Amino acid sequence: MRNPAYSRYIRRTIVLALAYVAAVAGVSAIVPDGAAPSSFNIALAVVPGLAVLGFIWAMGRLLVELDDEYLRMLEVRKFIVATGVALAVASVWGLLEMMVEVPRLPVFFVFPLWCAGLAVGQIYNRLTLGEGSGCP
């Protein structure tokens, strides 16, 4: 049986993902590329970031709501691996941008990169702890 904390987490993240996609699409439709930094444009540009803050809150809630220390440890391991992936890619790419001609990587992509790192952390947990690692 799945831990109820995971079910709540999944529900929260689905709602936040839908809100994030809607906010990015909506703001992109309203604010043109290269718009002047007016108060209105800045306020709109921050709206999708609220969904990102919601994701971070949902992950923190998951850690609080998990009553099993082993499952909590697995999630923390995933978070650490994801952080390492995001920091490594952002740092190496940033150095490349400084020293050679490569396309710029907007800071906007750091959080999606971190989320992709969660998948790497999940795989790491499975490889090092086996299929019975308790991850959803």
Features:
136 residues; mainly alpha; 4 helices; 77% helix
Shape: flat
Structural class, by secondary structure, is mainly alpha
Radius of gyration: 18 Å
Content of β-strand: under 5%
Count of helical regions? 4
Tally of individual domains: 2
Largest sheet: none
Helix coverage percent: over 70%
Distance between the termini: 11 Å
Beta strand count: 0
Helix-strand topology string? HHHH
- Are there runs of 5+ residues with pLDDT below 50, and where? none
Mean pLDDT: 92
Question: What is the structure about, briefly put?
Answer:
This protein has 136 residues and is mainly alpha-helical. The longest helix is centred in the middle third of the chain and has 31 residues.
Give a verbal description of the structure.
The chain starts with a helix and ends in a 7-residue tail after the last helix. Helix 1 runs antiparallel to helix 2 and helix 3 crosses helix 4 (110-129). 77% of the residues lie in helices and 0% in strands. The longest helix has 31 residues, at 69-99. With 136 residues, it is mainly α. The protein has two domains: 1-67; 68-136.
How are the elements arranged and paired?
Layout: H1 4-30, H2 39-65, H3 69-99, H4 110-129
Helix pairs in contact: 1-2, 3-4
